[in-house]
């Protein structure tokens, strides 16, 4: 069994915040892959289903971001999981908007949700880092992550969420490379072999009209006889 944890803050006022992209990713996975309904458990919301051959539990902690580890630790102990069975999907300031990376273990880099998870289960869990960009100044970070995504972000955000959902079965199977490939097919689809593609609305070029066929020799003879007759 695998446990996928999406990080965010509970409640409608936070639902579209940059900090809640982990919740958004789990919602898309649950919808696209036919998971059961969300229900309250482990101080959060859970949904159960399968990704490929793997049974997977989705968990959205409702303890607020800086106490996320309480919920994660409770679920891990209940199912007798190891921390390496857990993948956390979270916002990442140090990646440009729309960039996604997977990581096994490591530090929390000051992320309050990850810091709390470290405190409760240790550092040996996998992460999916979902880039949201950085506001440029340290003192602006809190307001930035607790602000809704801008309208201009909608296209790349949708592509990222779809890509994460497309690759979720590979993520559950532990195949990070194939997961990243699925994400890339949404966020950076391959170009045509010529490097450009004809716009869908472009009018196809019309073929030049074919030249009139030259008359055959027997046609010219018949015509000459007709002309001679009326001289």
What does this molecule look like?
With 231 residues, this protein is of the alpha/beta class. It has helices spanning 21-32, 68-78, 112-121, 141-145, 154-172, 176-187, 217-229, and strands spanning 2-6, 39-41, 44-51, 54-61, 86-92, 100-104, 126-131. Strands 2-3-4-1-5-7-6 form a 7-stranded mixed β-sheet, with helices on both faces. Helix 1 packs across helix 5 (154-172), helix 2 runs parallel beside helix 3 (112-121) and helix 5 packs antiparallel against helix 6 (176-187). The termini are far apart. Mean pLDDT is 88; it is low at 196-208. Keywords: Cytoplasm, Hydrolase, RNA-binding, tRNA-binding. Residues 187-221 are annotated as: Disordered. It is an enzyme of class 3 (hydrolase). Residues 199-209 have a biased composition (Low complexity).
Question: What layout of secondary structure does this protein have?
Answer:
Layout: E1 2-6, H1 21-32, E2 39-41, E3 44-51, E4 54-61, H2 68-78, E5 86-92, E6 100-104, H3 112-121, E7 126-131, H4 141-145, H5 154-172, H6 176-187, H7 217-229
Parallel strand pairs: 1-4, 1-5, 5-7
Antiparallel strand pairs: 2-3, 3-4, 6-7
Helix pairs in contact: 1-5, 2-3, 5-6
Question: What is the helix fraction of residues, given as a range?
Answer: 25-40%
> Helix segment count?
7
Instruction: Specify the overall morphology.
Output: globular
Low-pLDDT windows of residues: 196-208
Q: Give the total of beta strands.
A: 7
The assigned structural class equals alpha/beta
The ordered H/E elements are EHEEEHEEHEHHHH
Portion in beta strands: 15-25%
Rounded Rg? 29 Å
Major sheet: 7 strands, mixed
Report the span from N to C terminus: 102 Å
- The overall pLDDT average reads 88
Biggest sheet, strands in spatial order?
Answer: 2-3-4-1-5-7-6
């Amino acid at each position: 069994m695998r446990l996928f944890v999406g990080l965010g803050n509970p409640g409608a006022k936070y639902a579209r915040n940059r900090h809640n992209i982990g919740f958004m990713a789990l919602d898309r996975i649950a919808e696209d892959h036919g998971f059961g309904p969300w229900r309250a458990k482990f101080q959060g919301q859970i949904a159960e289903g399968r990704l490929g051959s793997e049974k997977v539990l989705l968990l959205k902690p409702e303890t607020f971001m800086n106490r996320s580890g309480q919920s994660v630790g409770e679920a891990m102990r209940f199912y007798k999981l190891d921390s390496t069975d857990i993948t956390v999907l979270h916002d990442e300031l140090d990646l440009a908007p729309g960039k996604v990376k997977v990581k096994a273990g490591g530090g929390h880099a000051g992320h309050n949700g990850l810091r709390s998870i470290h405190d409760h289960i240790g550092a040996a869990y996998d992460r999916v880092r979902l880039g949201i960009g950085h506001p440029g100044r340290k003192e602006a970070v809190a307001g930035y992550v607790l602000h809704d995504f801008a309208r201009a972000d909608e296209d790349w955000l949708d592509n990222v969420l779809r890509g994460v959902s497309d690759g979720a079965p590979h993520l559950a199977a532990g195949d990070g490379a194939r997961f990243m490939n699925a994400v890339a097919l949404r966020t950076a689809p391959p170009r045509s072999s010529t490097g450009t593609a004809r716009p869908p609305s472009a009018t196809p070029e019309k073929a030049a009209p074919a030249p009139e066929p030259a008359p055959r020799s027997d046609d010219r003879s018949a015509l000459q006889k007709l002309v001679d007759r009326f001289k």
